[in-house]
Amino acid sequence: MKATFCTRREICALFLFLTVFVLISVLHHMDILEFQPKFNSTIIMPRVSTHPNMIRSFCTFQPLSPEDALEERSSQEVWGDFLLASLHNRKLEAGVAGQVVDHLNGSYSAVFSLLWEGDAQVEVTLVHSGEAISVLNRLNREQPDRMYYKSLFRSGSLSETTLCNACLRPTQQPLCNYTDLRTGEPWFCYKPKSLSCDARINHFRAGSKANLLNANENKLFQSGVNLKVYIRASGPSSVSVLPQREGQLKEKSSTVTSGPSGYYYQGVWRALGGTTVRKFNASTISQCLKGKVVHMYGDSTIRQWFEFFDATLPGLKEFDLHSLRRTGPYMSLDYANNIFVTYRCHGPPIHYYSMSTRELRYIANELDDLVGGPNTVVVFGIWAHFGSFPMEIYIRRLQSIRRAVVGLLDRAPGTLVVIRTANPRYLDLFVSLINSDWYSLQRDKVLRAIFKGLNVHLIDAWEMTLAHHLPHNIHPPPPIIRSMINYLLSNICPQNGG
């Protein structure tokens, strides 16, 4: 690795020639903008049905044909590994995410925007080898039900538990069809032997399948060896950024067309997309949210934001709705400042251990029921529970949410809609097979493509986590959460408009 001297705010490509031991799979189906789902989104499915053959075509459970398998093996000759790159200066509390460019020959470039003067340390992480990515893609094709769920059915003294999923393997056993009548989102349970489909009372995660990999495949997911492991530089791993000389032209990378969404400097996230990020304390948060209703929807990474507000604002008091702690719903009110904050988790698939079927709500339906307006803020994030499912299921979910967002903004243009993206996390073998960063990144790309062009604000949790020096966690540590909240509030209360 070469140390390169560049001027401030220039784009500098740092060529990191890495020896790779395995070759590649990747993103062969990721032309998102041209992707057409294989279903009719206008079909309204019946609430309950016992027909045994109603599982959607995107749950194939089938291995590749010999011809397709040969094509996939051939494609590994040109696809690359999954690498993450970042640039840090611990003393300045500065950091920025890099973009990794695969040259399709075993070498890569990490491209960074140099956004502060002084030293910067290059960090490159191998998340997965190409062969590991091939395994992950195969699992989603052949084992979409490897995370499984159950529901309890009860009527009087009779009770029975059956398997449930969006992807249930075809059997002669009849099914209960719980496809949502408004969105068409699919969900099924095997019908109980002695009870009707209407007797279902809860939903819970029941576990995950074991022994999904053979011995050779297991070797592709070894912590500290080839699973989210830091790659040591063979030479200098730092750069020095000098002050920009007067009249010097800025350089642009020839290998990437877009830069980072922001960077850290002195511990503060600085967005590069036009929003000036301010630092908020309890007093200024209350002032910003005064008179506003904030509705939050999604997985536990959104619940983490609700919990931040609850812990930070002394005047915000949570109502005891006697909900389960992890599942919600939650509701808090600051009566003096007229602040109302709610949280509700998204509909299945969701990995929580137990929740009433009466609390299973889809984000699109919740948005359709909102009045909206200039004092309404909608925040949602939905990604962490979809990693083990075919991409088509996630695309369908986002399409229904997009339609609801468009409708909300049409009837109430003053409504502020904010979307939290995915973020990298700690990985071991188990997590990799269910919710790898690879799965998260692909779904993050889909989300950005589907909501592109709408009047919504993205909180780039991916880059905000990658650019920070703290370890990755599905629930980022407090400094990162505070930066996300500052960014959120800066969109709610922009500096130029109060």
UniProtKB/TrEMBL annotation:
Pfam families: Neurexophilin, NXPE4_C. InterPro entries: NXPE4_C (IPR057106), NXPH/NXPE (IPR026845). The keyword Transmembrane helix applies. Keywords: Membrane, Transmembrane, Transmembrane helix. The keyword Protein transport does not apply. Residues 269-493 form the NXPE C-terminal domain. The chain crosses the membrane at residues 12-30. This is NXPE C-terminal domain-containing protein. It comes from Zoarces viviparus.
